[in-house]
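job 3f2a | input accepted
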Amino acid sequence: MTKGNSGLSEQVLNKAIEAGLSTQLDAAEKLEANVQTDPVALLQGELRSAGIEGQGLVMKRDLRTEKLSMQTDGVAIDPLKAAFGDIELTRPTNATAVVTLTEADIQRAFNGDYIHQKLQYLKVQSDGQPTQVNVQHVEFKLPGKGKVAIAAAVTISATGEVQHLAFSATPEVGPHGHQVLLSQVQVEGQGAPAALTNSLLAAASALLDLRNFALPGMLLSLQTIDIQTGKMLLQAQAQVKDFPGN
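job 3f2a | predicted structure (246 res):
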């Protein structure tokens, strides 16, 4: 094989990965795979590495990712199937992944159908009496300094009265390694019923769950959370058992 043959093989494999990924996404503004190999390694069923870069990816629950980057270690594949553009792993491979979420995208998902339904008909205590409330709109902010800020407009079902609540919190890695939990909660003003604040915290954890970003054949384990002004970076270790589409 010549160097040109190797380049052609990489192009075929890149297109196969991109095609498989696209079938698992609701939308993608940009999606690129980058396979590194050589003719001898490919004949032996080995890739030196495989990378994926995506922008504007929409996965589960209408949550858009500003950017998704993943880079694998060496990859063992079936060389015969690879010759036809079919990448089948013969053993799992490790990878690192970074998911970048923007403030605007998280807020949009907070007000989407999935989370909105979770925040309706909530039972809380108000002035010592049980009552039912509906969360109408959520504002999610990333002001930096390792904090998130959440504000919501809440309607009291019995009276139609609209109340507002707001709090800030510090994101941390959950005990199972796949969720972002919000701790060190600081409620503004006179405070809101604990049940309502807890419902919003639970909704945030459900939304910021790495399983929402994992593709079939991939297991993500959250390592660090980097909160910057206007965006959140989730850094994870990944175990890849298969490439999407296979």
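job 3f2a | The chain has two domains: 3-102+211-240, 106-207.
job 3f2a | closed
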